[in-house]
């Protein structure tokens, strides 16, 4: 081996160790088995052509392939989210694991976790990504991973059942094949999109129903093939849209456009603003008609909208009126206070309803992991509750707040 190759290997090893240390500090890794896998797999070999520093950046994804319009089709996910999902999966030696969405690196980590007695199958719909994953795995010495070219909507039945299924692309739904191919005591970790936001959820199988163990906010390249899904965009004005994931809701668009030009009403809850991703999930699953409101940065800068709208914020809609969340400093409660901006003829009523939700979350559910999420396939013999339902193509997501 030449001196330059030796130096590069030493630098890569040093950067890899630093990445693991950073992931520990971020609490992304807890178990020693995941630490050992991250410390052992040469991540840079799965990012050919990228600088070593980029390959080992703990919180940086690398785009592998884009479409003709520049949209990312495949990426090497940030090590942070890969570590979180592996911790959620709790993979043990000897397990059979299906990875949906190939890239190579994550499959190599899984191979380290299942050991010589385990099985790793990785499936992807894109021939270029499959070829790339196979080549990278061979270069890194992980020749026991089977990479399959197929539409992941159907899983890989010939190797089922699986103790774990890990999905590394943004999924709008959970196809029946994934549930069918999961073992009786199996677990699926899936970035599931619900009402405009994606959360990676660890679901345990309980008969025909999936029940969450943990969840966290995430972002992934969307699923391709039969499982692909496009969000619905309702434009209210230049630079102002509602984004809706589930079946299109019927909005009085003209009335909402008029509401945009009406005076803004402010109402404040007196409740602390905290854990915005958890609050957002609560709002999205406890309102009768809700959509994600997005406004361009320049409209926020001009004072037309609160900063929350630039990132996307749950909007409660009632006829031709709407309300959305904002915040302000409040020293009495030791940080920020949540509040509401509302527009339209029913602004008072819709603002009051939103404020009550903010207060209820702050008093009863202001903590990590407060929600219980279930996925109930259409074929399951389980009755559905009356609230917290998100309809999907193959089943229903049920979000409750014990």
Task: Spell out the key features of this protein.
alpha+beta, about 30% strand, 7-stranded antiparallel beta sheet, 2 domains, Rossmann fold, 10-stranded mixed beta sheet, globular
Top-tier CATH class of the largest domain:
Alpha Beta
Distance between the termini: 60 Å
Give a count of the beta strands, DSSP E runs of length 2 or more. 19
The stretches of 5 or more residues where confidence is low (pLDDT under 50) are: none
CATH third-level topology of the largest domain: Rossmann fold
Shape field? globular
Describe the overall structure.
The structure is a single chain. The chain has 402 residues and is an alpha+beta fold. It has two domains: 3-227, 3-Layer(aba) Sandwich (Rossmann fold), CATH 3.40.50; 232-364. It has twelve helices and 19 strands. The strands form three sheets. Strands 5-4-3-6-7-8-9-17-19-18 form a ten-stranded mixed sheet. A seven-stranded antiparallel sheet has the order 10-11-13-14-15-16-12, sandwiched between helices. Strand 14 (313-318) and strand 15 form a beta hairpin. Helix 2 (32-40) crosses helix 5. The mean pLDDT is 93.
Brief write-up:
The protein has 402 residues and is of the alpha+beta class. It has two domains: 3-227, Rossmann fold; 232-364. The chain is built from twelve helices and 19 strands.
